[in-house]
């Protein structure tokens, strides 16, 4: 099974990929994979490792959102945020699921994948890549020296009519963090965590009509991404990195 999973991953990493426009022009949409994980969860490390492998794909935006509901079992997750737990519960409510769990991956705000199921995740990503983009995003990073990135959103050429509210969210994350865990189910382990989400801020709201133009200000050098999402926890309609 491990050998088969390795073959799946090798084929997956060899797939053609796109890139996100930074110098002005249409941005190639990214498939967003949100991993809800915890340092207190003994079954999470394989999913954490899978998410780290995803960072090699420029057509995917992998994000690790650490939740706080495992903190009581002996180890407080250093990256946990109650807002991440609320986001996961919001996805569960929108998707008609009765429970939340770790590790769980949510793809483009719609489909959930259990744990580190590389084959299911690969199939789900490819299915989302094959769909036409509901929102066309243009990014002009020429102002990046001043901390400002100009963004334009409009309905995609082949997309159906959009309806609001649509939330535009700025995500800041750390590319890699290493933690020595001394208590709990993973006591004694040193683990790497990729694309650890540190902040999600709503920077605009859009009704889906006409063209939305905004300038996103980046106050530091942390990696940043923009998510365009059917509010509050619906489908992610477009996503791009900003730096």
TrEMBL record:
<dbReference type="InterPro" id="IPR010634">
    <property type="entry name" value="DUF1223"/>
</dbReference>
<dbReference type="Pfam" id="PF06764">
    <property type="entry name" value="DUF1223"/>
</dbReference>
<keyword id="KW-0732">Signal</keyword>
<dbReference type="InterPro" id="IPR036249">
    <property type="entry name" value="Thioredoxin-like_sf"/>
</dbReference>
<feature type="signal peptide">
    <location>
        <begin position="1"/>
        <end position="21"/>
    </location>
</feature>
<protein>
    <submittedName>
        <fullName>Secreted protein</fullName>
    </submittedName>
</protein>
